[in-house]
């Protein structure tokens, strides 16, 4: 209670002081001086009032200069407070004092705050300073990245592009990521050019950025970047970027057409490298190419075609997979059985996809048909584990009988619990779920599933553990 009266008294006193300063005999200079005096006090409540006045009152560059000049006189904690207020004030006149503090201070938290303040207030002029901070230790380094991301002006983008192309090698990928975070579409030509860089980390960053920002005009360059990428992790990442542009970004249909034209124009060796992406992009034209490979008498080309088919992004490929699976035999252990496993895995993957052009009932029907084609318990277990992505009571009833199968009880328990996690589904079919959860508790050897099933029976929630 005494603390509340104290705060009220401080506010009343501050109001009286400002009213007096703003009277007929006083000018704006008195208000500024009063604000400086409040910010300089030890009392946190007085300082809070002064900082609020810096944010919202006493306008003008001259006043900003006086407020910013306080930075050199305050303790580290109060310097951070004042930088935040000056950033909220939004006056560039504070930049010289904040820059000077960044140069002079040895306090990591103060330096990080100064960097963030430059990001809020600055423009292209501050890029050079922030570039140096990007190579500093934490937390200054992270603050510099955020600052470069929010820095205003086309000139800032131009300088970041220049740093991405010609800057310090170890920081070039970071500058590229910053351009992606800024959604800097004006940087697209430079990013396309950079996909052919000699540095793999730079190439990867450029492809990653293009995957986020790119469209039809960038696809041809991205195809070249994909072919330039080293096999393995870099190529996989480049492939994902190309697929994203052709299946998710604005203009995706036209992008897919550009990719298809590039694929047709490529030599045999390059086609082999591009084929996985072709499969993941999908579409009727891609299907015609893949079918041609599958029907080729050359076993190697058939394998390439099958691999592309199993990467298809949606369930439009399901009839073709089912047809091929029906024809696959075990006669050739090195090829036939390998084909069968590959095709079956693809069906298990695509059936419950959230955007695979099937409704929930059709997804479940495909999954049930896939289950009938499984010959090994390990494949049946994968079907059960995938089933819970189809959140319907029919899926629950499909999984339920497998609780009594010793070889498949654990994946069935997991799917029942995952479906029970969705309260609306659980409560709408409460009697069935309660019996099933009892069965899970008595069956599973997984302590977490027991805990979850018990909580759901009691109508409680459960949060998935992180990490």
Explain what this protein looks like in three dimensions:
This protein has 28 helices and no strands. It is mostly helical. It has a domain at 390-467. The protein starts with a helix and ends in a 10-residue tail after the last helix.
List the SSEs and their pairings:
Elements: H1 2-21, H2 28-39, H3 44-56, H4 61-69, H5 76-89, H6 95-104, H7 108-121, H8 127-134, H9 140-150, H10 154-166, H11 172-181, H12 188-194, H13 200-213, H14 216-228, H15 233-247, H16 252-265, H17 268-281, H18 284-294, H19 299-309, H20 318-327, H21 336-350, H22 360-373, H23 377-387, H24 393-399, H25 409-420, H26 423-428, H27 430-443, H28 447-457
Helix pairs in contact: 2-3, 3-5, 5-7, 6-7, 7-9, 8-9, 9-11, 10-11, 11-13, 12-13, 12-14, 13-15, 14-15, 14-16, 15-16, 15-17, 16-17, 17-19, 18-19, 19-21, 20-21, 21-23, 22-23, 23-25, 25-27, 25-28, 27-28
List keywords for this structure.
single chain, about 475 residues, mainly alpha, 28 helices, flat
Rg measurement, Å: 31 Å
What is the succession of H and E elements?
HHHHHHHHHHHHHHHHHHHHHHHHHHHH
Category from helices, strands and their pairing = mainly alpha
Shape: flat
- Kindly state the number of beta strands: 0
DSSP helix fraction: over 70%
Number of H- or I-type helical stretches = 28
The termini sit apart by 44 Å
Low-confidence segments, given as residue ranges, are 1-12, 19-26, 331-336
Q: Describe the main β-sheet briefly.
A: none
In round numbers, the mean pLDDT is 90
Q: Give the DSSP E fraction (strand runs of 2 or more residues).
A: under 5%
């Amino acid at each position: 209670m005494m603390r509340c009266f104290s705060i009220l008294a401080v506010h009343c006193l501050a109001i009286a002081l400002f009213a007096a300063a703003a009277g007929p005999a006083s000018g704006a200079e008195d208000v500024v001086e009063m604000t400086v005096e409040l910010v300089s006090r030890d009392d946190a409540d007085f300082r809070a009032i002064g900082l609020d006045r810096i944010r919202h009152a006493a306008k003008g560059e001259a006043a900003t200069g006086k407020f910013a000049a306080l930075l050199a006189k305050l303790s580290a904690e109060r310097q951070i407070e004042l930088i935040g207020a000056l950033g909220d004030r939004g006056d560039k006149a504070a930049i010289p004092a904040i820059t000077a503090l960044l140069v002079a201070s040895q306090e990591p938290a103060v330096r990080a705050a100064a960097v963030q303040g430059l990001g809020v207030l600055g423009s292209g002029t501050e890029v050079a300073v922030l570039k140096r901070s990007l190579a500093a230790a934490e937390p200054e380094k992270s603050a510099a990245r955020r600052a470069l991301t929010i820095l205003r002006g086309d000139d800032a983008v131009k300088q970041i592009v220049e740093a991405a192309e010609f800057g310090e090698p170890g920081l070039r990928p970071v500058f590229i990521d910053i351009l992606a975070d800024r959604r800097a579409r004006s940087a697209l030509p430079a990013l396309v050019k950079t996909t052919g860089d000699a540095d793999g980390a730079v190439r990867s960053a450029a492809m990653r950025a293009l995957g986020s920002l790119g469209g039809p005009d960038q696809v041809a360059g991205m195809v070249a970047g994909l072919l330039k990428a080293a096999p393995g992790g870099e190529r996989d990442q480049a492939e994902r970027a190309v697929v994203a542009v052709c299946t998710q970004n604005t203009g995706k249909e036209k992008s897919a057409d550009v990719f298809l034209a590039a694929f047709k124009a490529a030599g045999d060796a390059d086609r082999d490298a591009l084929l996985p992406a072709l499969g993941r992009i999908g579409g009727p034209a891609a299907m015609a190419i893949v079918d041609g490979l599958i029907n080729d008498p050359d076993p190697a080309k058939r394998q390439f075609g099958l691999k592309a088919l199993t990467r298809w992004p949606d369930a439009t490929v399901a009839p073709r997979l089912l047809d091929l699976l029906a024809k696959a035999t075990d006669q050739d252990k090195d090829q036939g059985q390998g084909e069968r496993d590959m095709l079956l895995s693809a069906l298990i993957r695509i059936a419950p996809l959230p955007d695979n052009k099937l409704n929930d009932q059709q997804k479940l029907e495909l999954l049930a048909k896939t289950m009938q084609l499984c010959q090994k318990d390990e494949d049946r277990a994968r079907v059960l584990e995938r089933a819970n992505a189809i959140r319907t009571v029919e899926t629950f009833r499909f999984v339920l009988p497998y609780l009594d199968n010793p070889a498949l009880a654990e994946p069935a328990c997991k799917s029942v619990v995952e479906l029970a996690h969705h309260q609306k589904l659980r409560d709408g079919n409460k009697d069935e779920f309660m019996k099933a959860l009892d069965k899970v508790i008595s069956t599973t050897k997984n302590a977490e599933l027991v805990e979850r099933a018990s909580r759901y029976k009691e109508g409680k929630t459960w949060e998935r553990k992180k990490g």
